[in-house]
Write a structure and sequence with these properties.
Helix 1 packs across helix 2, helix 2 runs antiparallel to helix 4 (87-105) and helix 4 runs antiparallel to helix 5 (114-136). It contains nine helices and no strands. The two termini are 24 Å apart. It is mainly alpha-helical. 72% of the residues lie in helices and 0% in strands.
Amino acid sequence: MARATAPRQHVLTWLLLAFAGGCGDPPNAPADPATVSPVSPADFRTQAHGAAFERLLPLARTALELADPVAAAALGRTELGPAPLGVARRAALREAVELAWREAADIDASALSPDRAAVLAAMRFGLLRARDDITRRPLTRTDPAIPLVATARLIETLDERWRGGMRGDAAAALIAARAELRAGLDDLGACSPAMAAAAADDAMTLAGRVDGLGGTLEGDAAAAARAL
């Protein structure tokens, strides 16, 4: 299940983070009070929803960065780290998503410019997907493959970055990944035999990637990989 949905979600997150990072209009210069004309109801509505859109951007950016730290790091938004798998970080993600959704839900797209309306539609879709994953379909509680696949994605990204000379703080990312993987596995409930069998295969794949990464890294990063 995680294998089928993860790639599309990652592409969506990349797009939304890119939109959220650069679609605000530059602020207007303060108007001279003597030249300000009365604002019509239509103009007031446009201004109000435009202001709400501006408030949404940082809220959506925060929620998306929490949801997918790997994509956020690839875009230079945050340090590379693991996906939210344990109860504490998923609670923080739920709060951030709900805060952004409340702002997004009240914006009338017809009061925005066409490009902003398109960004709003994409953000609403992404936030709805995140809400669905966190609240209505919390697959992290039933599918043991999800924390394994998410951790394997981080390991693969770390390996690519290390080989490309982007060393960063690999040790910190691996230590955080270990803690988050354990938290995610501890939060699992009952799962089907088929899911358990698939997760066993994923665990073997993850172990192979960790072994390979451990042979590439150096110093504290290598020790952190071996401890994973």
